[in-house]
Amino acid sequence: MASSSSAQSRISNLQNHLSPLDANTKLRSLVKISPQVSEALSNGRAVVALESTIISHGMPYPQNLQTAKEVESIVRENGAIPATIAILNGVPCIGLNEEELERLASLGKSVQKTAGRDIPHVVATRGNGATTVSATLFFASMVGIQVFVTGGIGGVHRHANHTMDISSDLTALGRTPIAVISAGVKSILDIPKTLEYLETQEVFVAAYKSDEFPAFFTEKSGCKAPSRVDSPEDCARVIDANMKLNRQAGILFAVPIPKQHSAAGNLIESATQRALTEAREQNVTGNAETPFLLARVNELTGGTSLAANIALVKNNALIGSQIAVALSQLM
Fold first, then answer.
1. What three-state secondary structure class fits 131?
2. Which residues lie closer than 8 Å to 272 by C-beta, 6 or more apart?
3. DSSP labels for 239-303?
4. SS3 of 8, please?
């Protein structure tokens, strides 16, 4: 039998190996953090995480590049540092420079759409990955970013009672203490069931300046929001409390699309119903379904849905930046 001292030594070594500080240091060494983002995090400045799937799969080149640059500019103009996240040549990158943004945008759909489950494979094969909400949450949490802006999160798909198609975004939110600012969930999804699932995952959900949960392309979904917040400062205080209480679940702030872009909601909903039918007929499932539906809805609406999508992402970037700045002032 081993001596008690040697056994205790092994236990001590194991505890050291698993300590959060040690693990966090090792994790951060595996990613490339841009100088701007690194400096901002070190100095307690506001940083806003941005996903990259919307660049690679959300719209064609060069419109995707232009939109990505405009969103980053909005973040900077409102006092925060943008941290667009992607995997390039197997290296997770937190904050992209202009050359990296250009490369990601020009590669387009040849880049792998990367959810949380896909990260090890993309890194191991030195591939290129555009991060979805779940993957972006993982990397943002790894480096200590507290605010993440996106267009809309994934959710429970319509007819999920038959397909069991539920986005990993929801479970990622349930175990990652980060605030996500979005226009709710994509309108191609089942919004009531998504809200129920978020409640099960203990995710705090609030609508921004509204009592009703937004439906991505429209201001209202018919679903009452679980909570309401009315300012960036309100949001920052919720995030701060969540952090201080060491809750491990995330937060979703749902920001309604600007009024001037919500008028086409009925047209878009009609196109969505048709696209859903076509997806079922063509047996489009899994992570291919959302890009298919969004592209088809854009075709059916003559580009109206894409214009609305861009408008709501920019609005979310504006609100998210203000929230990040308000949070930095509390810390």
1. strand
2. 187, 188, 293, 297
3. HHHHHHTT--S-EEEE-PPPGGGTTTHHHHHHHHHHHHHHHHHTT--GGGHHHHHHHHHHHHTTT
4. helix
Task: Give the residue from 195, 230, 256, 204 showing the smallest Cα distance to 323.
Answer: 230
Higher-confidence position of 264 and 214:
214
Percent of the chain with pLDDT over 70: 91
- In whole angstroms, give the CA distance from residue 287 to residue 114: 9
- CA separation for the pair 254, 206 (Å, rounded): 6
pLDDT of residue 46: 98
Per-residue confidence (pLDDT) for residue 263, from 0 to 100: 63
State yes or no: cis peptide before 35, omega within 30 of 0.
Answer: no
Active site positions, annotated: 51, 186
Flag whether pLDDT at 270 surpasses 70: yes
Question: pLDDT per residue over 25-48, tens digit each?
Answer: 666 678 999 999 999 999 999 999
- From CA 133, how far away is CA 125, in angstroms rounded? 21
List the structure tokens of 229.
Answer: 């917040």
End-to-end CA gap in the chain: 51
DSSP 103-124: HHHHHGGGSEEE-GGGHHHHHH
- Dihedral angle over CA of 322, 323, 326, 328, nearest 10: -110
